[in-house]
Each structure stands twice: as C-alpha cells, then as structure tokens.
Amino acid sequence: MPIWLIIIISAFTALALIRLDWAVLLLVASLPAYLIRFKIFGLPFTLLETMILISFAVWFFKFFWPDAPNIIKNLKNRWVYPFAHEIILLIIFSFIAAGISSFSNGALGVWKAYFFEPILVYLLIFNIFKNKAELSRIIWALLISAIAVSLFALFQKITGLFIANPMWAAAETRRAVSFFGYPNAVGLYLGPLILIFIGWLFSLNEKDILKGLIKKIIISLTIVSSLLAIYAARSEGALIGIAVSLFVFGLFAGGKQRIATMFLLITIIGGVFWFAPASGFVVTKLSLHDLSGQIRRQQWKETVEMLKGWRAITGAGLDNYQKSIKPYHQEGIFFNSDNRPNFDAVVWASSTLRAKYWQPVEIYLYPHNIILNFWSELGLGGLLVFLWIIIKYLIISWKLAANLGRRQSQEKYLVLGLMAAMIAIIVHGAVDVPYFKNDLAVMFWLLIALLGFLNLDNQRIISSHK
To answer: Tens digits of per-residue pLDDT, 369-394?
Structure first.
C-alpha cells in the first residue's frame, strides 16, 4: 500500500475518533473514492469502504458498546429505523444470492460493497445526526461532491484531458467521464443530486437575508454546473430522468408551480411535434431504435431467456450475470444505421451489407434495466423487496409532502426533491444500472435515510400535538 494512502487512512481514523460526525460528512463528500483501490493482506479494498468500516467501528466501540445495556433496554424508543424490516429481508436475500454464486470472492465483494456497507452508512446517519437541522450538513457534503465531479467533467469537455477512451477524448465525439470510467456514470451520480438540490433550494428560509442569498447562489451554481456536466457526458438517460422528475416536482409543488409546469410541458410537446427533426429524434430515442436502444433491447431479450426455469426464482446470483448469460448471448446485431427499407431482406441477401451493418455486442456486467438488474442478481424475492422499498419510499414522500404542505412548511420542497431524486433513479434505471456501483448504492441508502429522518420528525410533531 502506498505511503500516501496510509497517511490518508490514518488521518481519517484520527478524525473519526475526534469528530465522528465530520468523518461521516467527509465520507459522504468522497463517494467517488471507491475508485481508489488497494489490498490489505491480499484482500481487495477501496478507500470509500475503508472510510465506511472505520466510521462504523468507531461508532460501535466508542458510542454503542459502552452504552449497549441502556440501548437494548430502550430499544423501542431509540432504535426506530424506517424500512427496518425491508433492510433485514434485503440483507437475507442478497446473502442467499451470494450463496447461489457459491460465495465466490466476487459475489461476497458485491454483497459487501453494494448491500452491507451502504446499510452501515444508513445506520450511521441515524445514530450520529440527532435532529433534522443537522441533515443540511449531509446535503452540503453531497453538494461539495457534486461540485468536484461536475467541474472536473467540464474541464475534460473543454480540454479533452484525462479521458482514457480515444473516441470520447476526440473533439468531435467528446464525452466527459469526470473521475469515473465511462460517461453515463456522470449522469447516474449527478442526476439524483440535482433534484435534491432543487428541493433544498426551494426549502431554504434563512432569517439572515445575506446568508440565505449566498446559500442560494452556491446551490444554484452547483445545479447549473451539474446539468452542464451531464450534457458534457451526453448522458441522455440522466437528462430524461431529470426532465420527468422536474415535471413530477412541479405538479406536486403547488398551484402556481403546477400551472407553470403544465404550460411548459404543453409548450415542449407542441414544439417537439411541430419541429419534424426534433420529433424524429425523440421518437427514435424513446422507442429505442437508435444503436444504444437496439443493444439494450438485445440485452433484455437475452436476460429474459436466461431468467427462465429455476432462475426465475433464484436469479443468476451475485456477480454471476456474465457467466450465466453467455449461453444465451448473441455476438452482435444488424443495425440499420441508414434507415434502409426492407432492411432484413436486403441485409440477408448481401454478405457485403451484412458486414457493413453488423454491430458487435459485448457481454455487460448487468442487463441495464433496474428490474432485470435486481432480478438477475437477487432473484425474484430480492427484486420484490427492492421494488417494495422504492414504492414505500414514494408513498411516504408523497404523504409527507402533502402533510407539510398543509402546515405551510417550506420543508415540503426538500421532501419533493427527495421524491424526484428517486424518480430520476427509476427513469434512468430503465436503460442503465443506477444501483450496482459503490457510490450509487451508498447514495441510494442516503436518500432512504434522509427521507426516513424527515418522516420520523414529522411523526413526532404530530404526536406532540395530540
């Protein structure tokens, strides 16, 4: 392990021992740190998971263990974790999925990085941050992370530097990747955060006018830079997810916002269908008739074939998709890039055209669809639990926003931002992998924790008035 890494880990451990809340905030701001990988005694680790494990160990031995008898005695009052039953079920199903993959090193690594450790972060949030006023510190940490990711992506877009793939680095086909290895990761990371920041921006109600103005300027600039970064990465799924989520946000935000949202939607739809090139582009994208859409459709077809028989119940197992899909994989597709009429007949009649239109398709890590991703990795039981978590999250956010709206609370907008963030994940997840990645898994459980914290606080207020 490099000496600089030892210094960073040692400094983080010291920070956790002195100010655990600061250490967790640094962890949240450093989600892309999973890209820094190393080994300890031959075992693979990332800097992000090292920070998670150190933070949890410090909390457990410094705060939980000394007070364990009292905590257990008052378990009902102190440990009120939203989604507790769903979390237990998800841990069980994910561990069974690792067993289906024979508890291979890869399967256990996926279980640890995508389920066990993100849920540890969820627990840390509820045990370290004691009131909802402190939640803004977590959002500030996410904002710092978004600034770093977006500014680096914009730097890459302008200069072409630090983009390993030659095609993405070339000026005419440039796509920013920021700290990540591929462009869509930029959209997957920043998309949900933009919606949180928008809700946070609307919810701000500072007594100090100057302080409030400075906060709003910083948040607004972060939203703009993040949107520009997603555009620089040309992450179409993220942009569509943001657009759909903003529409939902506007519908639930209130009277004036609802009217403005409907007017804007009608204007955009009318403009798209009036302008023929835009109409053709939108129809092609939404019907998945472009190259990436055709590849996705082929992936899904193969995955559905694989998920038959006993695999419909068990899935392929964690980290076992590529191996399981191989017998069903088609090495490529014929893509009608020139929109030739009678394409199939023309192509099969000419070996030259077959060579021209043949598009190789690799075996990806996941099926690139949120339902098929979880079905293939966790099996049917795990998929149903995860779908229920998402549905429950949306129901809670909708009810909570309605309740806060009746109380004329500005906090309603933050809740709507959290709801919109989950919708962005779902929409983008229709054609991508919005969870099975270290930073995205932690971000997902941060959303669950933030909403759960706000909902518990609302329930306490309601109970106090009865």
So the answer is: 999 999 999 999 999 999 999 999 99
Going by their DSSP bridges, the two strands 43-46 and 37-40 should be labelled as antiparallel
Amino acid at 129: F
Q: What is the pLDDT of residues 310-320, one digit of tens each?
A: 999 999 999 99
Residue type, position 363, single letter: I
d(CA 350, CA 127): 67
Residue 306, in any domain of the structure = no
What sign has the CA pseudo-torsion 238, 239, 242, 243? negative
Q: Which two tokens stand for residue 193?
A: 């955060």
For residue 66, what are the contacts with CB-CB under 8 A and spacing of at least 6? none
Sequence-distant (≥ 6) Cβ neighbours of residue 302 within 8 angstroms: 325, 328, 329, 330
Q: In which region does residue 361 sit, left (phi positive, over 0), alpha (psi from -120 to 50) or beta (all else)?
A: beta
Burial of 55 (0-12, 13-18, 19+ CB in 10 A): buried
Is 460 a domain residue? Answer: no
In a domain, 187, yes or no: no
pLDDT tens-digit readout, 432-455: 999 999 999 999 999 999 999 898
10 Å Cβ neighbour count for 87? 19
* pLDDT tens per residue, range 282-305: 777 777 878 888 999 999 999 999
Q: Which domain holds residue 60?
A: 1-79
Q: What is the DSSP string of 361-426?
A: -PPPSS-SSHHHHHHHHHHHHHHHHHHHHHHHHHHHHHHHHHHHHHTT-THHHHHHHHHHHHHHHH
Those residues whose C-beta lies under 8 Å from the C-beta of residue 16, and which sit 6 or more positions away, are: 23, 54, 55, 58
Q: How many domains does the chain have?
A: 1
Do the domain assignments include residue 5? yes
